[in-house]
Amino acid sequence: MSPLLALGLLLAGLCSVHCLPENVVVKDQDRRARVDDHTLASSNTDFAFSLYKQLALKNPNKNVIFSPLSVSIALAFLSLGARGSTLTEILEGLKFNLTEIQETEIHQGFQHLLQALNQPNNQLQLSVGNAMFVQDQLKLLDKFIEDAHVLYSSEAFSTNFGDPEAAKSLINDYVKNKTQGKIEELFKVLSPETVLVLVNYIYFKAQWKTRFDPKHTEQAEFHVSKNETVEVPMMTLDLKTPYFRDKELGCTLVELMYTSNDSALFILPDEGKMQDLEAKLIPETLTRWRESLHPSRIHELYLPKFSIKSNYELNDILFQLGIKKIFTDAADLSGVTGTRNLVVSQVVHGAALDVDEEGTEGAAATGISIEKLAFQRTTVRFDRPFLIAIVLKDTQSIIFLGKVTNPTQA
Ligand SMILES: *[C@@H]1O[C@H](CO)[C@@H](O)[C@H](O)[C@H]1NC(C)=O
Ligand SMILES: *[C@@H]1O[C@H](CO)[C@@H](O)[C@H](O)[C@H]1NC(C)=O
Ligand SMILES: *[C@@H]1O[C@H](CO)[C@@H](O)[C@H](O)[C@H]1NC(C)=O
Ligand SMILES: *[C@@H]1O[C@H](CO)[C@@H](O)[C@H](O)[C@H]1NC(C)=O
């Protein structure tokens, strides 16, 4: 399995932990708020690793890249409209322990997080946002509109899904614009039955604190597996940066800092140890790593320059993670319109990550399309022995009565 696999989660996974604490302005609200931010970050990390494991399992021997934060925010946004066990499933699927944190605290947590991430920062380009595309005739509850706006800073666009190609272009172009052209086609198809689409996007661009010199980048071997080797542009650097040799899990970690003091953590499992390491990806491991990383001189760091992309449909994977009802006619999304007649048809996610001598550029988006539940179709199949009675209406006389056990028998 390619070591690049590991990269996928880092940036994104780390961001959900690391982008948080330092620069969040916690003024008057104090401990309580900080406890919530911490709970939010640790639930998000738990969700990130769970989602990673499912994606890695479904895409063996392929690069994996996604933004767990984008998926978490999009699902939390959707949960504003969910009720009953549909709601509980989403929040528990996002790894919140509902005996410890309440729904309103979760939404406030995401509200703080969105505000913190969107603070202007001259060392870092980071923008995270939400939008909803609403079928012209769909009447949303005022409460849903207000919460979407206040808690998730969502923009709203009236959309004619009757013309699915035009609706798809409108949404995909919006995402493309917000991700600086990096996510070009979030939705591949959009059904004409769609009445509502929720979108989250993330764009990130940062420069390494210590940049690689392009003059030192040379073609070198990268061992995809024991048998397969490819040539890659390999960057190289001599620097002092947080480093940890994890003997217990059999891997080496290097943390590269951006000028903003955010960072990317690169994890290199020992040969043949990728799967063992993947199994140990849990929030406690990340915490232990963070405590163990210490600045060290690395005389020669070799890191490939790369550009990877992905496009996933997450329906099955979310189902595996326990978020099931939203996809079935048992869905209760009555918080959106007041009526229990909506169902999620697709959850799609696209991500792109470029790592080069200057730094990192990454973008991701998550889209959730929602349809009206089709009218219940009733099917009755007489495909086993049955009875028959033919009754004359006026006299209520049973004129024939029988049992059909084998229709092919004379
Ligand atoms: C949720 O939190 C409670 C109280 O802290 C704890 O007893 C319980 O084990 C937790 N549940 C899960 C699934 O972690
Ligand atoms: C995104 O849209 C804004 C406003 O319409 C425009 O000014 C900007 O150039 C667009 N950016 C990209 C990358 O298309
Ligand atoms: C590697 O190549 C050897 C010999 O060609 C073969 O027996 C083995 O199955 C290959 N291993 C993998 C992982 O492809
Ligand atoms: C990053 O951290 C260093 C050391 O703690 C500090 O001197 C510097 O001002 C920080 N830079 C930013 C952009 O926060």
Automatic annotation (TrEMBL):
Keyword Signal applies: yes
Main location: cytoplasm
Classification via InterPro entries: Serpin_CS (IPR023795), Serpin_dom (IPR023796), Serpin_fam (IPR000215), Serpin_sf (IPR036186), Serpin_sf_1 (IPR042178), Serpin_sf_2 (IPR042185)
GO terms assigned for molecular function: serine-type endopeptidase inhibitor activity
Coiled-coil region(s): none
Keyword Hydrolase: no
Annotated compartments: Cytoplasmic vesicle, Secretory vesicle, Chromaffin granule; Secreted
Gene Ontology CC entries for this record: chromaffin granule; extracellular space
This protein's UniProt keywords: Cytoplasmic vesicle, Glycoprotein, Protease inhibitor, Secreted, Serine protease inhibitor, Signal
Pfam families the record matches: Serpin
Signal peptide (from-to): 1-19
Span of domain Serpin: 49-407
Assembly and binders: Homodimer.
Family: Belongs to the serpin family.
The name this protein goes by in its record: Serpin domain-containing protein
Species this protein is from: Ovis ammon polii
